[in-house]
Sequence to fold (321 residues):
Amino acid sequence: MSTTLQVVVDGMFRQGRHNLAVNLVAENGQPLPCWQPGAHIDVHLREGLVRQYSLTGQSDNTRHYQICIARDQQSRGGSRYVHEMLRPGQVLRISPPRNLFPMQLAGKVILMAAGIGITPLYAMAEALEAAGVPFVLHYYVKQRGDEAFLPELSKPFQHGFCEIWHSSEGRSPRSHAPAELLDPAEDTHLYLCGPAGFMSHIRATAIRHGWQEQHIHTEAFKPLSAVAAQDEAGFTVTLASTGQQWPVAPGQTIATVLLENGVDVPLSCEMGMCGACLTRVTEGEIDHRDTVQSAAEKSAPEQYIALCCSRSLSRNLVIEL
Ligand code: FES
Fold:
């Protein structure tokens, strides 16, 4: 299992109407591990509540990490906890940074963010500025006053610039496409972050206008597996403690089956990314589909399964519950 770090909430700052930036410093006062733009951390907000947040700001700063969280009306707990309960001075556990959205070297970079998708892209803009790589950042928000990091994004950059677009003024991502998107240049890469609908719309527009797939990058905040349910085999899951056994049908997750049968499963991301549901397997062969464990962990003698997404290659799996 990867180790966690103890950090202290060192400051919280309002960022536009609905967002809160949170600064985290190591509890022991030491520098935090280095990170690259696009990286995220798992934040253990309280027992059983783990959320992934992109690191933002200047990535050469290891004295503190900054994350930024939108108030989400549909919150499953994380956003509400941050906005209503989290306070400066509180100690939290976090994972070391992991990067599923790394930036590649390119002649020029177009960054497009919607809403809180600005967090990794703001870090990318700062890194591109520091590296002298030309960039443009297009940032879509609903209305004036919603922007996070407004002073930072409004400052003059030497190597790029930021354009902020407001849907309330007729420039939503659907109705407005920046010139760079419609006219792809060679050696230019496009990075997208925001709601799934925004990313699929921009990606489709880009492809229609001649962008190559490999030049378009979005955050892989989803399970690795894309195996269609009809191609999956069913299996049974057995509890080591009681011997109770239930079938897991194609398309179902082990976690769903256990919950339906009254077994308490600690869940958080439900995407194989946070490790909240990792459980030891004592018999059977795991079809690992999580991204939280390393390749070495997935082939170690002691095996753990992400109950929210992984499946079984054997007919039966005995789990230590
Ligand atoms: S709930 Fe996050 S890995 Fe399963």
